[in-house]
């Protein structure tokens, strides 16, 4: 009788390689590249079990957001997104004048919505250990009602990163950036989770 | 592809960065080091990119990192001088990347993003949405031309 390979060994090996793959994928920021629903399901189903925050990451995120003026950064990030990636304007047809950069930057509906988005991120900052549940409802909303292509979440998060970088200057080191982007990547993943 | 206004904006930004580099006496690499910093940012946020540098010492402030970063910034700055001639300017680099380096072009996007972050850190409020859009467009064009000979 051949010695049975313990199931737990195979399971551990599988979990370990999945976890490594997931970390590589999360860090590579390639979430938006994963088109197949199967891969997407695999990633998101393991994502909530896999996110481990280091003390540095936790404190960095808390620090950045605690010092942030949501009413400045939110509008700045959203306007930047609408200007740098103009196709994102497709979701804001009823926002009035988005004709040029000046119009977008002066648009009060855009400003208000930018602030709303930042307050939404704030919920994630306060619930870093269960982002999946925190954003489940918003994910359904963006998918079923707003019909937003999840690729746009990454565009907005890139713009938010740039806005924060411009504010923090040298203090936005490579390590701080990595922590910030990791947080946003998990939020983006949670927001895309309920799409089907 | 890029409007005249965008081209002027880009040329202006890069001229400003390079002119500081020429002044060797001062803390010259401070501005140009925004590029080695971009490379460092890329390694921190996207560790997979480090796999292309296994033959070099890419630790913090290593000579390799600084010189490599400088090579990249000079190439990008050179391209910015006459964007309509990108294919001509980048021809040797196209061959290098296609036949020798064979870097997966997805990584160009990752590096471009880190470049933009470094520019934002360096320029603060001056990195306006218009400048950001123009620079992003330019870096995308640069990356596309660089990958042209891949297949």
Automatic annotation (TrEMBL), chain A:
Question: Which residues constitute the signal peptide according to the record?
Answer: 1-32
Give every Globin domain span: 52-196
- Is Iron tagged as a keyword? yes
Entry protein name: Globin domain-containing protein
Q: Name one Pfam family in it.
A: Globin
Gene Ontology BP annotations: hydrogen peroxide catabolic process
Q: Record's family?
A: Belongs to the globin family.
Task: State a single Gene Ontology molecular function.
Answer: heme binding
Which SUPFAM superfamilies does the UniProt record give? Globin-like
Which key words are in the record? Heme, Iron, Metal-binding, Oxygen transport, Signal, Transport
Q: Name one GO cellular component term.
A: blood microparticle
**Family annotation (PANTHER family):** HEMOGLOBIN FAMILY MEMBER, HEMOGLOBIN SUBUNIT EPSILON
Magnesium among the record's keywords?
no
The UniProt entry, under PROSITE patterns, shows: GLOBIN
UniProtKB/TrEMBL annotation, chain B:
Q: Which UniProt keywords apply?
A: Heme, Iron, Metal-binding, Oxygen transport, Transport
Establish whether keyword Nucleus is in the entry: no
PANTHER family (alphabetical)? HEMOGLOBIN FAMILY MEMBER, HEMOGLOBIN SUBUNIT ALPHA-D
Annotated Gene Ontology cellular components are:
blood microparticle; haptoglobin-hemoglobin complex; hemoglobin complex
Task: Name the CDD domains on file.
Answer: Hb-alpha-like
Presence of the UniProt keyword Zinc-finger in the record: no
In Swiss-Prot or TrEMBL terms, this protein is called: Hemoglobin alpha embryonic-4
| Pfam families in the record | Globin
Which GO molecular function annotations are given, in alphabetical order? Answer: haptoglobin binding; heme binding; metal ion binding; organic acid binding; oxygen binding; oxygen carrier activity; peroxidase activity
Residues spanning the membrane: none
Q: Which InterPro entries match?
A: Globin, Globin-like_sf, Globin/Proto, Hemoglobin_a-typ, Hemoglobin_oxygen_transport
Q: Which SUPFAM superfamilies match?
A: Globin-like
Q: Please list the GO biological process terms of this entry.
A: hydrogen peroxide catabolic process
The text of the family note is: Belongs to the globin family.
Domain Globin spans what residues? Answer: 1-151
């Amino acid at each position: 009788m051949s010695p049975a390979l313990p199931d737990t060994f195979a399971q551990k090996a599988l979990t370990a390689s999945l976890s490594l793959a997931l970390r590589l994928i999360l860090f590579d920021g390639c979430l938006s590249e994963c088109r197949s629903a199967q891969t997407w399901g695999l990633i998101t189903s393991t994502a909530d079990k896999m996110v481990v925050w280091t003390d540095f990451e936790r404190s960095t995120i808390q620090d950045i957001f605690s010092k942030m003026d949501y009413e400045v950064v939110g509008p700045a990030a959203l306007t930047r997104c609408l200007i740098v990636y103009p196709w994102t304007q497709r979701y804001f047809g009823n926002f009035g004048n988005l004709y040029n950069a000046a119009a977008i930057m002066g648009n009060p509906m855009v400003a208000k919505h930018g602030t709303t988005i930042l307050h939404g991120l704030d919920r994630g900052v306060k619930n870093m250990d269960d982002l999946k549940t925190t954003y489940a409802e918003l994910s359904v909303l963006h998918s079923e009602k707003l019909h937003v292509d999840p690729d746009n979440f990454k565009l907005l998060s890139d713009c938010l990163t740039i806005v924060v970088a411009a504010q923090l200057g040298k203090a936005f080191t490579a390590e701080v950036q990595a922590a910030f982007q990791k947080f946003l990547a998990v939020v983006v993943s949670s927001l895309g989770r309920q799409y089907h | 592809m890029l409007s005249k206004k965008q081209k002027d904006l880009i040329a202006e930004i890069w001229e400003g960065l390079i002119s500081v580099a020429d002044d060797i006496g001062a803390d010259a690499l401070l501005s140009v080091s925004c590029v080695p910093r971009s490379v460092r940012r890329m390694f921190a946020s996207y560790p997979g990119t480090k796999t292309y540098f296994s033959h070099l010492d890419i630790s913090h402030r290593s000579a390799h990192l600084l010189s490599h970063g400088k090579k990249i910034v000079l190439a990008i700055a050179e391209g910015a001088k006459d964007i309509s001639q990108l294919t001509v300017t980048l021809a040797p680099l196209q061959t290098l990347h296609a036949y020798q380096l064979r870097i997966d072009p997805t990584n160009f996007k990752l590096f471009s993003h880190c470049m933009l972050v470094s520019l934002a850190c360096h320029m603060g409020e001056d990195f306006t949405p218009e400048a950001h859009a123009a620079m992003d467009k330019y870096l995308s064009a640069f990356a596309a031309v660089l990958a042209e000979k891949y297949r």
